[in-house]
Write a structure and sequence with these properties.
By secondary structure, the protein is α+β, with helices and mostly antiparallel strands. It folds into 2 domains: 79 residues, no CATH class; 236 residues, BirA Bifunctional Protein, domain 2 (2-Layer Sandwich). The strands form 2 sheets. The chain has a 7-stranded mixed sheet with strand order 1-5-6-10-9-8-7, with helices on both faces. A 3-stranded antiparallel sheet has the order 2-4-3. Strand 3 and strand 4 form a beta hairpin. The chain is rod-shaped and about 130 Å long. Bound molecules: 3,4-dihydroxyphenylalanine. 3,4-dihydroxyphenylalanine (DAH) binds next to strand 9 and strand 10. 3,4-dihydroxyphenylalanine binds next to strand 9 and strand 10.
Length: 341
């Protein structure tokens, strides 16, 4: 028995513990409950009772020395192991919190709203899901007008009481809602999304943004319209721009015009964007048609007014040199993050 104890002591002394793994192996071999030291203790009953105390002491000494060796190794590794969670590298730079940015369309819309607000226009909104009546009828569209066609309009449900339900194709129905709701004088702009059933390409999309304007008061003339648009264009596109009013047609205005500004990319010399013409179309406008006023309960003998409607997205594309309108609607963070302040 003494020989076994001495042999084991030698083995313990000779066991090299250089890392955690070896420490684990050492414990498994010697100090655990089913280890080799415990096995020797189990054999104590074979020893003659007179010798047991002495052998027992030897065994205890063996056990203590093995435990001391393991504890010493443990302390050694604790000193060099570093922080308790080695997976955390405190020298790494911190993560920035994610901060969104204003969408390019909202930036342009924001500028438009600021300019018109400063001129005394307030903001009105209306539903994107609209009734045929507001989108077309009350705006003086004849029953068979081609704009009502399925090709242009997304109908949601047809033949409902109160007319077909559709996605509004322009912001002009908000004019109607405002006129039905308020007494003149009226001075509002109506920004919002509109929908058209068009082939999707880099230049056109099924949804886009418009900003509508409406001014009704006594003795409002086409000269007021021109002055307002001119002031807007200089603030929006630069003090050097020139304007051109071309006669046009809309069912809800008479007379009607389309407005061009000198191309603010080439200064009017002619480039790829303005198709060498030197002009960019920015809006439709005109004097509110007497029928529209009557439809909304406003006496056209007493009141006159002008209206205009412009696209927002194209300005955003031109201003920020984005060459595909679809990028404005895909919500790709790689694109949007480029507009953070
Ligand atoms: N609603 C027209 C469109 O979507 C734009 C427009 C033209 C609005 C003339 C107006 C206007 O208010 O007077 O094409």
């Amino acid at each position: 028995m003494e020989t076994s104890i001495r042999q084991l002591q030698q083995e313990i002394d000779g066991f090299e513990i250089r890392n955690q793994k070896e420490l684990e192996a050492f414990r498994l071999e010697f100090t655990v409950r089913k280890g080799r030291i415990a096995a020797l203790f189990a054999r104590l009953k074979e020893v003659a009772p007179s010798e047991r105390p002495a052998v027992g002491q030897l065994l205890n000494a063996l056990k203590l020395s093995a435990e001391a060796k393991a504890d010493e190794a443990d302390a050694r590794f604790a000193e060099t192991a570093g922080p308790a969670h080695p997976a955390i590298d405190i020298s790494l730079p911190g993560r920035r919190s994610f901060c969104g940015s204003e969408h390019p369309v909202q930036k342009v819309l924001g500028d438009m709203k600021r300019i018109f607000s400063a001129m005394g226009f307030s903001i009105a909104t209306g539903p994107e899901l609209e009734l045929d009546e507001y989108n077309f009828d009350l705006l003086n569209f004849p029953p068979n007008h081609p704009a009502r066609d399925m090709q242009d309009t997304f109908f949601v449900s047809r033949g409902q009481e109160g007319g077909d339900v559709l996605l509004r194709t322009h912001t002009s129905p908000v004019q109607v809602r405002v006129m039905l709701d308020q007494k003149p004088p009226i001075r509002v702009i109506c920004p919002g999304k509109v929908y058209r059933n068009e082939a999707i390409s880099a230049r056109s999309y099924c949804v886009f943004h418009q900003l509508e304007g409406l001014y009704i008061d006594k003795n409002v003339s086409f000269a007021d319209l021109k002055a307002t648009i001119y002031s807007f264009a200089r603030q929006m596109f630069g003090t050097d721009v020139k304007l051109r009013f071309r006669p046009s047609f809309f069912p809800f205005t008479e007379p009607s015009a389309e407005v061009d500004v000198t191309c603010y990319l080439c200064g009017g010399k002619g480039c790829r964007v303005c198709k060498k013409s030197g002009w960019l179309e920015i809006m439709g406008c005109g004097m509110v048609h007497p029928n529209v006023m009557r439809n909304c309960g406003i006496d056209p003998e007493e009141w006159t007014g002008y209206a205009f409607g412009m696209g927002v997205d194209r300005t955003a594309l031109l201003r920020y040199k984005i060459d595909d309108i679809r990028l404005l609607f895909e919500n790709d963070v790689r694109m949007l993050a480029q507009f953070s302040a």
